[in-house]
Amino acid sequence: MLVVSSPSAVEECFTKNDITFANRPRTMAGQHLTYNSTVPVWAPYGHLWRNLRRVATIEIFSHISLQKSSIIREEEVYYLLRQMLKVSNIEPQKVDFKYLSTLLVSNIMMRMVAGKPCVGEEFACMDVGKQLLKEFKDSYFASSTVNICDFFPILKWVGYKGLEKNMIRMQKMRDGALGRLIEEMKQKKPHVEKKRTLIETLFSLRESEPEFYSDNVIKSIILVSSSTYFSLVKVIEIETCTYLKIQTK
C-alpha cells in the first residue's frame, strides 16, 4: 500500500508514472495459474491487457451476450428446482443447497463456454455427479490470489510448504482439461451465430487475429468466465438463505 500525502506526489503518481501504478504485481499464482499472467486481472498494463479487456467486455459481459445466454440460465434454474423437487418428493428432507447452487453455476458456465453441462441432470443427485463436480471445481476454480511467497521471495526458493509445486501440479491438470475441451470444440460443427458458445466465438475471432487468439489466450478467457460465475455461488447461497428466513417469519 502506498500513502501519498502531498499534491505534487499525487500528480507525479497519476501523470508521470501512471502506467507504473496501473500495472499489476508479478505473482506466483499469476505466473503458474494464468498462463504467465494472460488473464485480465493479472496481465500487465499494455496492448495485451487492453485486448483482453475488450474481449471480456464485448464477448462475456455485454448486454447482448448476456441476453443470448438467458435461455441457458432459465433452463438450468428449472433443472435445479426439479432436482430439489425430486429430493423432497416423498417427504421433507434436508437439501445440500451449496452443492446444488455450485452445480447450477457450473452448468450455466459450461453451457455458455462449450455448449454442454458440467454434470448431466441424470447424475446430479448421485455420488458420481458430486465427484464430477468436485473434479470440475478442482480444474477450473483454483485460487489465484497472492500468497506469502510473493512478499518474501526467498520462501519460494526453498519451496515453502510446497506452494509452487502444488500450483504447477494444479495448472497441469487444469491445462489438460482446458486443452481437451478446446480440441473437442475444434472437431464440432459450429452453431449459428445466435447460439454460438464462447469458444466458438473466440475461434471465429481467431480468423481475423490469429496472432492474438492463441490457445493459451482462449484458455485464459475461459478462466475469466468461470471464475466470474463461480463467485456467484456464495451470493446465491446468501440471498436464498435470507429469502427463506424472511418467509419463515
Automatic annotation (TrEMBL):
One Pfam assignment: p450
Keyword Manganese: no
GO terms for MF: heme binding; iron ion binding; monooxygenase activity; oxidoreductase activity, acting on paired donors, with incorporation or reduction of molecular oxygen
Source superkingdom: Eukaryota
Alphabetical keyword list: Heme, Iron, Metal-binding, Monooxygenase, Oxidoreductase
PANTHER family according to UniProt: CYTOCHROME P450 82C3-RELATED (PTHR47947), CYTOCHROME P450, FAMILY 81, SUBFAMILY K, POLYPEPTIDE 1-RELATED (PTHR47947:SF13)
Protein name according to UniProt: Cytochrome P450
Species of the source: Quercus lobata (Valley oak)
